[in-house]
Amino acid sequence: MKSPRCTVILPTYNRAARLPRAVTSVITQNEPDFELIIINDNSTDNTRTWLETLDDPRIRVVHLEYNQGPSAARNVGINLATAPVLAFLDSDDVYREGRLSVPLAVLDREPDVICTLSSALKEYKRGDKAVARLPDVKLASSAFEWAMICDLVGVEGTSITVRTEHARKIGGFCSELRRTEDREFLIRLSRLGAARILPDVLWEKAWSVDGLSTQWTTAGRDLVSYFSERTEYLGRYRKVGQYLATKILMMDIRHRDIPSLVNDFRHFYGMGLLDEGIVQLCRNHVQVRKYRRAAQNKPLEAITGPPVEWES
Predict the structure, then answer these.
(1) Which of 119, 117, 231 is nearest to 174 (CA)?
(2) What is the residue extent of each domain of the chain?
(3) What's the rounded Cα separation, in Å, for the pair 88 and 39?
(4) Are the C-beta atoms of residues 230 and 182 closer than 8 Å to each other?
(5) Are the C-beta atoms of residues 74 and 39 closer than 8 Å to each other?
(6) Helix axes 258-270, 238-254, angle to 10 degrees
(7) How many angstroms separate the CA atoms of 265 and 5, rounded?
(8) Is residue 78 within 8 Å of residue 86, measured between CB atoms?
(9) pLDDT of residue 124
(10) CA 59, 87, 220: angle at the middle one, nearest 5?
C-alpha cells in the first residue's frame, strides 16, 4: 500500500466541542493524500465517544492510558507516522485551504528545506481577528536558529510542517515542556537544515479561555523549564534570557501578582540571570527590545546571530 504524502498529527485533551471542526478542516483539504493521526491524551469528556464515529480510512485514532501532555502526545504521532512529511494541528485550531498542499510543494521544490512555518488568522479575547503574517523568506541553518532563539519569527505548533526523518533525528518534542515546546523543537531542528517561512495564511488560531497563552500565572515556571532545556540562554545568549525573564517579571507587576513576582524572581535569580543589578537589567532589556524591533525592518536571512557585544 502506497504511503501518504503527509501525516497530520493532532493531539487532543478535553476538546470535544472544538475537535470536529479541526478534523473537518483536515479532511476537506485540497491535498487528499494524507493520514491523520489523532492522539486522545486520556480525555475525560466525550472525546472518545465522538472519535468512535469516524470512519474515514485516512484517520487513525490512538487513546493514551494516562494524560501525558501535548509534547508526548505529538511524539506518539511522530513514531507512528508513515509519510515522509509531518504537519501538526492543535485541536483548538483549524486548517485553511492549502495548509497541506502549499508546504508540500515547497518541500518538493527545495530539497535543502527541512521545515516550513506558515502565517495564521488569529482570534483574540474579545472576538476580533487579525492576520499574523510571517515574512516571505528562506532561512539557512544559522539564521533559522537565531530567529528561533531571539523570537524573531512567531512560532506555534499548527504552523509547523517538517520532514519526518529530521523530526525523528532530533527526538521529537521535549516532553518536559508544556509551553514553548514548539520553539525548543525548532531550535534543535534548525541545526539540521534550512527553513522556508511562508506569508500564506494557512490556518486559524482560536482564542480559548483555558488555553496556555491565557495562563499567565504559570508563565514564569514554564520559562524556567525552557531555560533548563536550552541553557544557551544562561550563557552565550544571556541577554535574550534576561529579556525573556524580565518580561515575565513585568507581567507579574502589571497583574499585581506579588506571590508570582517573588517566586519568579527567586527562580530567575537562582539561574544567575538577575545578578547584574536593576539598572543594568533595565538597560539590557531595552537594548534587546530595540534590537528585536529593528530586526523586523532588516533582511531576516542575513541575521545569523547576536551582535558581537552581546556574547558572554
Answers:
(1) 231
(2) 6-205, 215-310
(3) 12
(4) no
(5) yes
(6) 170
(7) 47
(8) yes
(9) 82
(10) 115
**Helix count and strand count (H, E) for the chain:** 11, 10
Q: Is 131 exposed, middle or buried (0-12, 13-18, 19+ CB in 10 A)?
A: exposed
Cell of 269: 535569580
Cα separation of 246 and 239, whole Å?
10
239-to-5, 47, 124, 275 alpha-carbon distances in Å: 42, 44, 30, 12
Cβ atoms within 10 Å, residue 158: 24
* Rounded Cα–Cα distance for residues 72 and 303 (Å): 33
CA distance 262 to 135: 38
Residue-level pLDDT at 211: 59
Return the C-alpha cell found at 19: 475537535
DSSP state of 32: -
Distance, in Å, from the CA atom of 102 to the CA atom of 99, rounded to the nearest integer, reads 6
Find all residues with CB under 8 Å of 49, minimum gap 6, and list them.
none
Residue given cell 498542499 in the structure block? 101
Place of cell 515547497: 106
Identify the DSSP state of 83.
S
What fold, for 6-205? Answer: Spore Coat Polysaccharide Biosynthesis Protein SpsA; Chain A (3.90.550)
pLDDT tens digit sequence for 80-94? 999 999 999 999 999
For residue 49, count other CB atoms closer than 10 A to its CB: 10
Instruction: At 240, give phi and psi (nearest 5°).
Output: -70, -40
CB 220 within 8 A of CB 263: yes
User: Mean pLDDT of residues grouped by 10 in the chain (312 residues)?
Assistant: 90 95 97 96 95 95 94 97 97 96 98 97 85 94 95 94 98 93 97 97 83 71 95 93 95 92 94 90 92 87 84 56
Alpha helices (H) in the chain, listed in sequence order: 19-27, 47-51, 70-80, 101-109, 141-149, 164-169, 181-190, 219-229, 238-254, 258-270, 278-295
Supply the pLDDT for residue 126: 75
Could you tell me which residues come within 8 angstroms of residue 47 by beta carbon, excluding any fewer than 6 positions away?
A: 12, 13, 14, 15, 16, 19, 40
